[in-house]
Design goal:
Subcellular location: Cell membrane
Distance between the termini: 119 Å
Structural class: alpha+beta
Number of helices: 23
Strand content: 5-15%
Number of strands: 12
Radius of gyration: 45 Å
Membrane topology: Multi-pass membrane protein
GO cellular component, one term: plasma membrane
Shape: flat
Family: Belongs to the MscS (TC 1.A.23) family.
GO molecular function: mechanosensitive monoatomic ion channel activity
Length: about 850
């Protein structure tokens, strides 16, 4: 690639060459063809100078992690700036490329010459394209150098972190003696510095100190009162509840720890900010005050966490199966380790402020690691587990064998690591065991709370769920949906609180977290594809806004314009449908564009599909489009009872090609979507599952019709799933050939229960009719014979068989004898 200077480009890429000059003068570079290109060249040159400065800064601060964090942020910002500069040239490059394609190639030898203006335009565009290529190449080279520098910073920080942890220090009696002397000197110096600062503050900064403290306390009270107003029910335990639910215990443990810790943290942070802002803190005292506030926050957090999880004095609110004594002992061990860590951190800040020797820090960390190791070993021999009978006051059981071994190994490992000289590593592991463990468990409790609240039919039993039911008259389904949203919000709070705190404890800086968050929301790379979560979220919001705007316009036009103009209903429906499709399409285009998806790629896909359609994909595309229509319009959905020309059953699956219908004989029928679009489809459960069912009943002519109707209404009103509005009805249909025909009609709340309801009603009707003496007649047939003259041999009386009964002019039952006589009569007619 060629380097581009701020003044111009090499002559090989110039738009036009200057006339030959005397050899004493160098040829002047051609001017750039575009002001934006000129600005891009200047930005690239500035980026080169900035990159050189950052490279020098990384070399000079190879041992300073804080400085490397700041430099890393600057390098990342520089890389984004260079990338933006290069991307801004892309539209102009595409314009030049398109225009050159329109102009075509220059005429070849022997062809008619083209117009001078066309030649000049082509030459100018070609030169400008070459300049843009040169600038873009320079930007690519610069981006590679920036990425290399970023990797170098990351590797330097990794080596620095490892070197700090694995640094070995000799531990001996002389070291302990030197540390004792340094500690005595440090105490004297700190006492003198503290007394002088307090006297200075009391004389000159008294009002500022009290104002800062008052403002910080007000901030903490506002946060605490707001938390109590929103989550007051989940901050205190009710001693009158003997057996609280698991969701109540989880919620109180999580929110009481989180909100109260945040309130105290707000007081401490704002106190330091106000004290420092009002110039109350001196440079030598400010780090000590910050460490003191941090130690207080750590001890309070661990104490709240232990009380929330173990509940030493309230076993009914305990989240783990521990005895009362076990809960107290474990809580005490955690609090003791937190105090040791906090005091070590505070004394370390005092030593740093007073300029104490390094040996004092080493010995203090050694003592802290040894104490924490001994606490872990002592805790491993305890008996904290709940007794088998479940009595929390009874002596507990020992730890599970694996847990006890882990605690002992961890304690011994800390002690041995510190004694052999790796004090920094031992101190780091001890700190992470306490603080990181507490944060992880608190985050896990938050996730469990979200899971419990979002569980089906659980949110309605909470205080907020009952309030929503009474205040907004919300149904069970709506309450469950709100509970799901609340559960997801608790997930987000737990993760967005716990993960950053853990990363900060493990060596990350705030700038690192900001950089990670920026990249997560603006640039997520999957291979060669770059995805912006923020862009996708913006696109979704724009699409949702366009969709709701379209629906509002539809309703407004229909109710205010077309209804007042007495427009035909068909025209109104067509206009509404057209506006709906147009608005959704425009909203989709806007949303896709805002999400950063190149619409030209969609055009390529559309063109490929059009070619495929021309080669015999009509049916596939027809089914595909029909499937999209079914998914959007939703004339039926999964679970609906439908009747089509080919099948009747329950819809079990709708895909973009076909719809699967399961018949009541459990046969799956795959129906292409185009058939469902082009044919009439009956949907028994389109908008709801309410439907009418009928039971035909026939009784003999001897029955009282009114009594029959009363009995049927009485039985149907006692049946479940039958709606009272509209009320059931009995229709006297007709006077049948041998019966009075009725039809019992009723509405069901769920058509899926129709078969069971009809079966139960039929059984009840039959039983009641037998009790009331109402007969259900069977089909009857009366056959009437007339004795007309039939030619042929007369029937002798003696030839009459014993099973043949005399037949007169009246109707007789169609028995075997009658059928025989009818057969003989028919034979006689044929002979005649």
């Amino acid at each position: 690639m060629l380097a581009v200077s701020a003044a111009g480009l090499p002559g090989s890429f110039a738009a036009a060459q200057e006339p030959p000059q005397p050899q004493a003068q160098a040829p002047a570079p051609a001017p750039l063809a575009d002001a934006g290109l000129d600005q891009a060249v200047k930005e690239i040159e500035k980026a080169k100078a900035k990159l050189t400065s950052l490279q020098d800064g990384v070399k000079q601060n190879a041992d300073n992690d804080d400085a490397l964090v700041g430099l890393s942020a600057q390098v990342d910002e520089l890389g984004r700036h260079v990338l933006t500069t290069s991307v801004n040239l892309r539209p102009r490059f595409d314009q030049i490329k398109s225009r050159l394609t329109e102009l075509g190639d220059p005429p070849k030898e022997g062809q008619p010459p083209e117009a001078q203006i066309v030649t000049e335009e082509r030459n100018a565009l070609t030169a400008e394209r070459a300049q843009i290529n040169a600038v873009t190449g320079d930007a690519e080279n610069l981006s590679l150098a920036i990425n290399q520098l970023m990797n170098e910073v990351v590797e330097t920080r990794r080596r620095l972190f490892a070197a700090t942890l694995l640094r070995r220090t000799e531990v001996s009696v002389s070291v302990l003696d030197d540390a004792a002397k340094a500690f005595v000197e440090e105490v004297g110096e700190f006492r003198q510095a503290l007394s002088s600062w307090l006297s200075f503050v009391w004389k000159f900064k008294r009002f500022a100190m009290f104002a800062a403290i008052f403002m910080s306390l007000a901030t903490g009270l506002v946060m605490l009162s707001g938390g109590y107003r929103m989550f007051g029910r989940y901050l205190t335990r009710d001693d009158g509840v003997e057996n609280p639910s698991y969701i109540s215990r989880l919620s109180i443990a999580f929110w009481s720890t989180l909100i109260r810790t945040f309130a105290l943290s707000a007081v401490l942070v704002t106190s330091y900010i106000f004290l420092n802002g009002f110039n109350v803190l001196r440079p030598d005292i400010a780090p000590v005050v910050a460490a003191l506030f941090g130690a207080i926050g750590l001890i309070y957090f661990v104490g709240r966490f232990s009380n929330a999880v173990f509940a030493p004095r309230e076993p009914q609110w305990r989240l783990v199966r521990l005895s009362n004594r076990g809960a107290q002992s474990i809580g005490a061990c955690l609090l003791a380790m937190a105090i040791v860590n906090a005091l070590d951190y505070l004394f370390g800040s005092v030593s740093e402020a007073m300029g104490s020797p390094l040996v004092l820090t080493v010995v203090r960390s050694l003592i802290a690691a040894l104490i924490i190791g001994l606490i872990l070993i002592a805790a491993s021999f305890g008996r904290p587990m709940l007794a088998h009978d479940g009595d929390p006051d009874a002596p507990g059981r020992h730890w599970p064998r694996g847990m006890a071994i882990i605690l002992r190994l961890l304690g011994l490992g800390l002690i041995l690591t510190a004694l052999i000289g790796y004090v920094g590593l031992a101190r780091f592991v001890a700190t992470q065991f306490i603080i990181t463990g507490a944060i992880i468990v608190t985050t896990y409790i938050g996730l469990l709370s979200g899971k419990a609240i979002s569980k089906q039919e659980s949110f309605g039993d909470t205080f907020i769920g009952r309030f929503l039911k009474s205040r907004f008259n919300m149904g069970p389904v709506a309450i469950d949906q709100v509970g799901l949203g609340v559960g997801l919000a608790i997930y987000a709070v737990a993760l967005m609180t716990g993960i950053p705190l853990i990363l900060l404890l493990w060596g990350f800086h705030i700038q690192d977290l900001q950089l990670i968050a920026y990249r997560l929301f603006t640039e997520v790379r999957l291979g060669g594809i770059s995805i912006s979560l923020l862009g996708i979220f913006t696109g979704i919001l724009l699409f949702a806004g366009g969709y709701f705007l379209t629906r509002w316009v539809q309703r407004w036009l229909d109710s205010n314009v077309m209804a007042r103009s007495h427009v035909d209903l068909g025209v109104r429906n067509s206009v509404k449908t057209g506006i709906g499709y147009l608005g959704v399409a425009v909203a989709a285009i806007i949303g896709v564009s805002a999400a950063g998806i190149d619409l030209s790629n969609l055009a390529l896909v559309a063109s490929a599909l059009s070619v495929g359609i021309g080669f015999g994909l009509q049916n596939i595309v027809s089914n595909f489009v029909s499937g999209l229509i079914l998914l959007v319009e939703r004339p039926f959905k999964v679970g609906d009872h439908v009747v089509s020309g080919t099948a009747e059953g329950i819809v079990t699956r709708i895909s973009v090609r076909a719809t699967e219908i399961e018949t009541f004989r459990k046969q799956s029928i795959i129906v292409p979507n185009s058939e469902l679009i082009n044919a009439a489809v009956g949907n028994w459960t389109h908008r709801n599952k309410v439907g009418r069912s009928e039971i035909p009943i026939s009784v003999s002519y001897d029955a009282d019709p009114q009594k029959v109707m009363d009995i049927l209404l009485e039985l149907v009103n006692e049946a479940p799933f039958v709606l009272r509005n509209p009320e059931p009805h009995v229709e006297f249909l007709r006077f049948g050939a041998y019966s009075l025909d009725f039809e019992l009609r009723f509405m069901l709340a769920d058509m899926g229960e129709g078969m069971n309801v009809r079966n139960n009603l039929r059984i009840a009707i039959l039983k009641r009719f037998k009790e009331e003496g109402i007969e259900i007649p069977l089909p009857q047939s009366d056959v009437i014979f007339h004795r007309d003259h039939v030619p042929g041999p007369a029937l002798e009386p003696s030839s009459t068989r014993a099973d043949e009964q005399p037949v007169g002019d009246t109707g007789v039952t169609d028995t075997g004898a009658v059928r025989q006589l009818r057969s003989k009569a028919a034979d006689g007619n044929r002979k005649g």
